[in-house]
Write a structure and sequence with these properties.
heterotetramer; A mainly alpha; B alpha/beta; C alpha/beta; D mainly alpha; A: mainly alpha; MetI-like fold; 3 domains; three-stranded antiparallel beta sheet; flat; C: alpha/beta; six-stranded mixed beta sheet; four-stranded antiparallel beta sheet; 34% helix; globular
Chain lengths: 389, 243, 261, 616
């Protein structure tokens, strides 16, 4: 037996190749991480100034509380540049008189983004309500009731395929189904109605809901439906089978079992994944382009011109009008953040004046969506720790 | 060949000499550290985070395997291992056997062909499989899969073959075949086998080591240990009074 | 007080007749014939996979939850009623035949809510009545003294043995006639096991117990009658003492002496 | 005694087990009602999928017949014949004349090159000096425009002069100017003031010199110039004949359209309308022949010798091209002869026109074409780019995190990559417009990278830019599926491989990755599904040029702008009238997208299923 080392490594180059390869893989992963962080940093760096101001208290909320408007850029002959709103532009121009050198207007880039934020919130509200109801019911069926067979196979196949349908196709679907065809109750059916069912006191007319929050919300609901179904089913499956057996063994019916000893324990998980659904719904642009979104609107959805009430109007009339106002919110088309960003990015020139509005909206939007997603991820980790059975 | 071993938790103060071209069986109740000891010999325990040798050394062919200049791949090439559960790769039979050669850089087709035939013959599989070398390995029966794993291990011509309860997942007939195979292999290889089946140890091994709670209780030629154990602990274990 | 001689109640409350049961194509019970006497403690023993749990789970039809499970042929009659006939309401059935599972599994709710769960789903909402029932069943399960001051605490905070006794309390709150127990002590330590066994012995006579166990010592300690299952068949059934001391069948003998695993 | 002795007296148990009469509706019990409700809810997924198909088809189905009718009018009005002649001739013409012009420019440059260089250098220098003295210039301008008293002007003027002369002295002057000229130029530069609006004498002189040389050069290369002119003029006669026919054909089409929109209009009798065009066919053909012979003349007139190599090369190309074009004219002639104006366009033809048509032209005053090929190539190219970038990255990341990374690394790599999924596509699109486009463009102008195909690029918004962003979008999907697949490979494989002396890397690439391959492939396909269906990024970033990319650039093709299937819907649907042919065409594109997504999904599922039931 040789005293020398029988297990000496003979191949230095192989080892070097090994290390190189390992670093290559690491580099690949870190590159993705780096790009993500870089994008986030870039947007924050450029977008944060929209929310700050130079003097105390340094935080300028006007960007969040004003409606979008046209930006006027006025330059006087001293070379001083003022960015301002249309109304103030008039007064400044008067003050300057001869001193005015040039005035530029940039549509959409002025004011704040309150309108888009409100619109997005409304859309999300409708879509999540619809998707949550349908999704959880569907998940309950899949997890609690379904037996192996053709039907469940088809449902699963449909869910998978639904998840793969491009969002712009959902947009087309929403346009065809909700904007142009969905049924409404009306005394005077429109000409474009596909068909009308007379109900006696009124007509059920398939004439569509027009572009409005409701159409957009329903369209978005179907975009996120597969996500909600899959996640809810996982949460239901995670509830131990023992709970169901015990509950049944204690003489509960199937529905009592689901209602009392399955759903309550799956709810935190379902809500967590719903947050992810909200982030997704808020981020989609293509489905709302034709179904709900407007490029520009100078009113909030509830600031609608209703006929003024007579001075002697009773409580009831007031009440009726405010209800009308509330419900009317859903039949208005709105501005939405993603579509607003699209308008800002595609329809106005890129220059130093439009930059603040662009990056500001992108920053706010990203922060909203990202914090939703982060909350969801964080909650998921913590719930998993908390609910162990 | 001899190795000494001493670590804190799982194994303590073990001194054991394994002889060339003999079958050495490690027996003992479960959790006694026999598998750990086996996995230390080719440093498979390096894969487990937190596992380490705290004291002592293992010498294979006179070399401490924990020396810094030991190349792990070379060590494992020369100290082959067969696991408790057969685990062929999801590839063809041929590719399974050729795998060890390929990762050690053998590219010559004829050399690989020869090695495959030799090791399959040694593993008593050649006649059963020679017509379907390119069939999927996972289509074989459990016993065949385990023999394929043995063939895979001996394709690189290791000096030492470690077997970790190679028959525990097999039915009696397949077990019998593997045992026959081990006896044959002992002519060319040094075999260390972990088993929980005492009858098996008697049937296949030349030497037997009895471990209990991480300590080596007794090490002797198999016949001697089973017929005339020196330690009381061994005696009671062999008679089944504790388990 | 409990009925000392089983022969005092000769009629079987449960009678299993030529019962064949399968999961899909895989049959697990073959021609099982078994009378279970009222107010006895009957133990099912046998190696794992022998079908004893399946039989137990088909007595209260909890196996209906398993998609592929089905009765091939034969009947189980409780008090003369065929359990698998369409007139039987499985919900009502389960209220009369309680069950305790191998792994204690209280709902992650308060102890009180756990104890009265069965009553709540049966539609009882009267607070006082629920409180009464909870006290009664917790006392019966010998848990009252330990938990009476913390009824509103989370049940999952109890020790394993307490949780299992809570599960028993939960089952007897409905005052069932028959209690099925599927290896109730398998997940417990010896002290908790002893307590559960004590509890079963104290309840003996008030309920008909059917207990699946893999621990022969336990069967000897608590059962009046023992049935030995092997590969889906009933090999032997008889008084516990007889079965363990003079088994009538070679297989049974092998099993009780530990030669058959 | 146990407290349970209040056990109810032994009532018979049997009756308690029986079903009691309860709530039921038409024989349906409450339990089965609940069950039916939930199964109805579950079928929502199926219903929505069917509804999507229904609504896409409802609006898209009419497309083929509309398009057929439109193509029919296009043919019967004779517009097709005009295009048949004009389009190929125009293409040929553009190709050969551009080659010839470039050749001529190269030739001229051999003689005038130096003069041009000197002139250009001076112009650039003047610009630079002005830029260097910009602040002073602005200050002076302010005073000037304020119509201040002349005495206040002196000071800023002086400063400007100083700044200018400083700049003139410090600026490096290229060697094309002689040292004497440099002296003179520096002097002249110093006089650059706002009032001095005349060109510097130096520049004027250089201009004059260049003009002189240019004229001389043109005279010297007269043969080539003549050839260029001949080639440019070759189809003039043909075009001239076509113009009235164009007008007539369009007139016919308008009549037909009027008839379509209202029944009151007189019916169009196509054969009569077509007659003048058919009559002109002979003339057209002679003109076409004439064009062919002119091409030959031009070829004969090409000078044999050239001064510059580039010109020689270009002329050689022209020499090859012209005979080819002569052959092409013969082909055109054939087609024109074969053309049958009365042959009705079939549905099949319209379908072919949609699937394989090379033009997507809308709102055209001439004729709309809905050929999906340019959009499809755009979509496919962008997806391929995205996959080529995303696949290695995400697999590397998946392999690294599942096999090599420490737990701490995993803790931040995985959430960050998952987080990408939450970035809305519109934000990524915005990044493409605001950041990545300029980044890529400026990188492409680095001289070091000039060897790359397509570099330097001019278009900020192009397919590569969109591909990069879509790659980022595809990474999380691909990463998480690949990582799952890798993690689900049994540990025993790795143990066996390492026991045979394989290194970690060998184990990973020879055993673990192959075993997880089907899952990885499923991930890639799902990533593809995401990429091909993505709308906002491509709409904003891909450049929106509706044309089949020019593959002549080789790999550089990826830096061209393009349009996509998704982008066209998003861009055009808002602006078309409901039910028009254009509207229907967009829904047809939607149907195409839907089919593509189903196919991709189906393939991914097939792979994923192999993952679920592996082994044996």
């Amino acid at each position: 037996m040789s005293a020398s080392n029988p297990f000496s490594g003979d191949n230095d180059s192989a080892r070097r190749r090994e290390t190189a390869m390992r670093w290559l893989l690491r580099l690949g992963s870190y590159f993705v991480v780096f790009v993500t962080v870089a994008i986030f940093a870039h947007i924050s760096h450029k977008g944060l100034p929209a929310l700050l101001k130079p003097e105390f208290p340094y935080i300028d909320t006007s960007f969040l509380t004003e409606l979008p408007g046209t930006l006027h850029v006025i330059e006087d002959k001293q070379g001083r540049v003022t960015q301002t709103s249309p109304q103030e532009a008039e007064t400044i121009k008067k003050q300057l008189g001869n001193e005015l050198r040039s005035e530029k207007t940039i549509s959409y880039a002025g004011g704040g983004i309150l309108g888009p934020i409100v619109g997005t919130a409304l859309l999300v509200l409708v879509s999540v309500t619809v998707a949550l109801f349908l999704g959880v019911c569907c998940a309950i069926y899949l997890s609690e009731y379904a037996k192996k067979g053709k039907f469940i196979e088809m449902v699963r196949l449909a869910i998978l395929n639904l998840a793969g349908v491009p969002s712009v196709v959902f947009g087309l679907f929403g346009l065809g189904a909700f904007v142009l065809t969905a049924p409404v109750l009306t005394d005077l059916p429109a000409d474009r109605a596909v068909f009308v069912i007379p109900l006696g006191f009124t007509n059920l007319s398939f004439q569509g809901w027009d572009t409005c929050v409701l159409s957009g919300g329903f369209t978005l609901a179907f975009v996120i439906l597969p996500v909600i179904i899959t996640a809810s089913e996982q949460c239901l499956q995670a509830v131990p089978q023992g709970f169901r057996e015990t509950s049944m063994a204690l003489g509960a019916t199937r529905w009592q079992t689901i209602w009392r000893s399955v759903l309550p324990f799956a709810t935190p998980g379902i809500l967590t994944s719903t947050i992810l659904g909200i982030a997704r719904a808020a981020g989609e642009t293509a489905p709302i382009m034709f179904t709900a979104a407007l490029a520009f609107k100078d009113k909030l959805p509830w600031q609608k011109d209703l006929p003024p009430l007579p001075a002697d109007a009773g409580m009831f009339a007031h009440w009726e009008q405010s209800v009308q106002r509330c419900l009317g919110v859903f039949t208005e088309s709105v501005q939405a953040l993603p579509y607003h960003i699209y308008t800002l990015a595609a329809k106005i020139p890129q220059n130093e004046y439009s930059e603040q509005a662009q990056y500001g909206s992108v920053f706010v939007f990203l922060i909203l969506v990202a914090s939703l997603a982060a909350t969801s991820i964080w909650l998921r980790i913590h719930l998993r720790k908390k609910y162990k059975w | 060949m001899d190795f000494c071993y001493g670590s804190k938790a799982a194994l303590q103060g073990i001194h054991l000499d394994v002889e060339y071209h003999r079958v050495t069986a490690l027996i003992g109740p479960s959790g006694c550290g026999k598998s750990t000891l086996l996995r230390c010999i080719n440093r498979m325990n390096d894969r487990v985070a937190g596992a380490r040798v705290s004291k002592g050394e293992i010498l294979v062919k006179g070399k401490n395997i924990h020396d810094a200049d030991v190349d792990l791949t070379q060590l494992r090439k020369q100290v082959g291992m067969v696991f408790q559960k057969s685990n062929p790769f999801p590839k063809t039979i041929y590719e399974n056997v050729a795998y060890g050669l390929r990762v050690h850089g053998v590219k010559d087709k004829t050399a690989i062909d020869e090695a495959v035939e030799r090791s399959l013959t040694q593993a008593a599989l050649w006649d059963e499989l020679k017509d379907r070398l390119h069939a999927h390995a996972l289509g074989l029966s459990g016993g065949q899969q385990q023999r394929l794993c043995i063939a895979r291990a001996i394709a690189t011509m290791p000096d030492v073959l470690l077997m970790d309860e190679p028959c525990s997942a097999l039915d009696p007939i397949a077990t019998l075949k593997i045992e026959e195979l081990i006896t044959q292999l002992a002519r060319d290889y040094t075999v260390v086998i972990v088993t929980h089946n005492m009858q098996q140890a008697v049937r296949v091994s030349d030497f037997t080591a009895f471990l209990h709670l991480g300590k080596l209780v007794e090490f002797a030629p198999t016949e001697e240990l089973f017929t005339n154990p020196r330690e009381k602990l061994t005696d009671s274990y062999l008679r089944g009074t504790f388990s | 007080m409990p009925t000392d001689s089983p022969s005092a109640t000769p009629h079987p409350i449960i009678s299993v007749e030529r019962f064949n049961y399968a999961y899909g194509d895989h049959q697990v019970l073959f021609d099982v014939d078994l009378p279970i006497r009222s107010e006895d403690v009957t133990a099912f023993i046998g190696p794992s996979g022998c079908g004893k749990s399946t039989l137990l789970r088909s007595i209260n039809r909890i196996n209906d939850l398993v998609d592929s499970a089905r009765v091939v042929s034969g009947t189980i009659k409780v008090d003369g009623v065929d359990l698998y006939s369409p007139e039987v309401d499985p919900i009502a059935l389960r209220r009369q035949i309680g069950m305790v599972f191998q792994k204690y599994n209280p709902f992650p709710r308060s102890i009180f809510e756990n104890a009265v769960y069965g009553l709540r789903v049966a539609g009882i909402t009267d607070k006082a009545e629920l409180m009464d029932a909870a006290e009664r069943s917790l006392k019966a399960a010998a848990l009252w003294e330990e938990v009476k001051d913390r009824l509103q605490e989370l049940a999952t905070g109890l020790s394993g043995g307490q949780q299992q006794r809570l599960c028993i309390a939960r089952a007897i709150a409905l005052q069932p006639r028959i209690l099925l127990m599927d290896e109730p002590c398998a997940a417990l330590d010896p002290i908790a096991t002893a307590k559960i066994e004590e509890l079963i012995l104290s309840l003996r006579g008030s309920y008909t117990f059917v207990i699946v166990t893999h621990n022969m010592e336990q069967a000897k300690r608590i059962a009046d009658r023992t049935t030995f299952f092997y590969k889906g068949k009933v090999i032997e059934t008889g008084d516990t003492l007889d079965l363990f001391t003079k088994p009538g069948n070679k297989l049974t003998e092998d099993y009780v002496t530990g030669r058959l695993v | 005694m146990s407290p349970v002795s209040q056990q109810p007296a032994s009532r018979p148990l049997g009756p308690l087990l029986l079903r009691k009469k309860g709530f039921s509706l038409f024989g349906i019990t409450r339990a089965s009602l609940v069950r039916r409700f939930f199964s109805a809810m579950a079928s929502v997924a199926i219903i929505v999928l069917v509804l999507i198909m229904v609504f896409l088809l409802r609006d898209g189905a009419g497309f083929l017949s509309t398009y057929r009718a439109s193509l029919d009018v296009y043919r019967k009005s004779g517009m097709e014949l005009c295009d048949l002649l004009e389009q190929p001739v125009r293409e040929m013409q553009d190709k050969s004349t551009s080659l010839l012009r470039r050749a001529l420019a190269h030739e001229l440059a051999t003689l005038t090159g130096e003069a041009k260089q000197r002139r250009d250098a001076v112009v650039v220098l003047i610009g630079k000096v002005q830029a260097m003295s910009a602040p002073e210039r602005a200050a002076l301008e302010v005073v000037l425009t304020a119509s201040a008293p002349p005495e206040t002007l002196a000071d800023p003027r002086d400063q400007l002069r100083q700044a200018t002369s400083r700049a003139a002295m410090s600026i490096p002057i290229p060697s094309v100017l002689s040292s004497r000229e440099v002296e003179q130029f520096r002097r002249e530069l110093a006089t650059l003031t706002p009032e001095n609006t005349e060109l510097l004498p130096m520049l004027t002189a250089l201009e004059a010199e260049f003009a002189r040389q240019d004229t001389a050069a043109r005279a010297q290369f007269a043969p080539l110039s003549a050839a260029v002119a001949a080639c440019e003029q070759a189809p003039a006669a043909l075009y001239e004949t076509l113009v009235p026919l164009h007008k007539h054909a369009r007139n016919t089409k308008e009549l037909a359209q009027k008839r379509l929109s209202s029944r009151d209009q007189p019916e169009v009798h196509f054969p009569d309308q077509l007659k003048p065009i058919l009559d002109a066919r002979e003339t057209l053909l002679t003109r076409l022949d004439d064009y062919g012979s002119r091409l030959k003349q031009a070829q004969a007139a090409l000078p044999a010798e050239t001064r510059s190599e580039e010109a020689a090369e270009l002329l050689a190309q022209v020499r090859e091209l012209l005979p080819e074009q002569a052959v092409q004219t013969a082909g055109i002639r054939e087609k024109v002869l074969e053309w049958d104006g009365m042959h009705t366009v079939s549905m099949f033809h319209a379908a072919l026109g949609f699937c394989f048509g090379p033009h997507w032209i809308t709102n055209s005053p001439w004729q709309d074409f809905y050929g999906v090929v340019p959009l499809l190539t755009g979509s496919v190219l962008i997806s391929v780019i995205a996959l080529l970038i995303a696949t290695p990255l995400s697999i590397a990341a998946a392999v690294y995190t599942s096999q090599f990374a420490s737990d701490r690394e995993k803790e931040y790599i995985k959430p960050v990559i998952e987080f990408i999924q939450a970035i809305p596509s519109i934000v990524l699109g915005f990044i493409g417009i605001a950041l990545l486009g300029d980044l890529i463009k400026s990188v492409s102008h680095w001289p070091l990278l000039a060897w790359l195909p397509g570099f330097p690029i001019e278009e900020r918004l192009n397919m590569f830019n969109a591909g990069c962003l879509l790659a980022l979008m595809a990474v999380p999907t691909m990463f998480s599926l690949a990582e799952d697949a890798l993690n689900s490979v049994p540990q025993s494989y790795a143990a066996a491989s390492e026991a045979l002396g394989a290194t970690k890397l060998q184990t990973v690439f020879r055993v673990i990755v192959p075993a997880a391959l089907s899952g990885i492939l499923a991930g890639i396909l799902l990533g593809l599904g995401r990429v091909i269906g993505e709308t906002m990024v491509v709409l904003l970033v891909a450049g929106n040029r509706i044309a089949i990319p020019d593959f002549g650039d080789g790999l550089g093709v990826v830096f061209q702008p393009a349009h996509t299937l998704t982008g066209i819907i998003a861009q055009e649907l808002g602006e078309v009238s409901r039910g028009s042919g254009h509207w229907q065409a967009l829904f047809m594109v939607g149907i195409l997208l839907f089919i593509i997504s189903l196919v991709v999904n189906w393939c991914a599922r097939a792979f994923a299923r192999r993952l679920e039931t592996p082994k044996s």
